[in-house]
Amino acid sequence: MIRVQAESFDPGAELSGFVRSCGSGTGGIASFTGLVRDDGAPRLVALTLDHYPGMTERQLAKIEAEARARWPLTATLIIHRHGRMLPGEPIVLVAAASPHRRAALEACAFLIDWLKTKAPFWKLEETEAGAEWVAAKASDDAAAARWQGHLPGADRDSR
Amino acid sequence: MKLLYFAWLRSRIGVAEERVEAPDTVRTVGDLLAWLPTRGPAYAQALADPSVIRVAVNHDYAGPDRTLNAGDEVALFPPVTGG
Lengths: 159, 83
Known about the structure:
Low-confidence stretches of chain B: none
Largest interface: A-B, 31 and 20 residues
Largest sheet of chain A: 4 strands, mixed
Number of domains of chain B: 1
Order of helices and strands of chain A: EHEEHEEEHEEH
Structural class of chain A: alpha+beta
Number of strands of chain B: 5
Structural class of chain B: alpha+beta
Number of strands of chain A: 8
Oligomer: heterodimer
Radius of gyration of chain B: 12 Å
Largest sheet of chain B: 5 strands, mixed
CATH class of chain B: Alpha Beta
CATH class of chain A: Alpha Beta
Strand order of the largest sheet of chain A: 1-4-6-2
Distance between the termini of chain B: 30 Å
CATH superfamily of chain B: Beta-grasp domain
Number of helices of chain A: 4
Helix content of chain A: 25-40%
CATH superfamily of chain A: Molybdopterin biosynthesis MoaE subunit
């Protein structure tokens, strides 16, 4: 399931619902929750996520389909917020359910790594010193690149 | 075609979206990225470094060789920073 929303969400409640819905063939679930982080210098007031409605849903669906092609998953969950949010609030929740733990753990890492480099979201940090767009990190590209050719299902993006 | 801009590209160019009639010589994404800076100083400044510009055509990432059609929705944006 994929949800893109402005409203905040309760990661624990979402995960509970996911556990109940993912079917009796599931043996393990791995999840990742991303929060608005305040590095403290300068102090973060708020984070605003810009996104590209339409392309966001399309790219998330492709990322989810890619995970399901690579691992034997019984269910997946992606919730990603947009708009303005405060330090400590959840931004993203991804979860992968599989008969066995290895596939669940790997698929969960893959989902968040690919999402960070392919889903069209942009972070605007509002700090005490002013507002600034966050620059993409080379480490995020490297994290996504390690999944290239990892298992059957090559990267089909022309990016 | 319809052009959309996101994040700092939108603030630097000054509009979120616009319709443009590109000259006949603009056939590909690469042609578009070469032509847009000629439309004014804001475009020239925003698009000065092609290494930080990503392009999507009709909601899919597109490389410089992608052919463009009159009805396409073309989005220009910096590398993504979600998650």
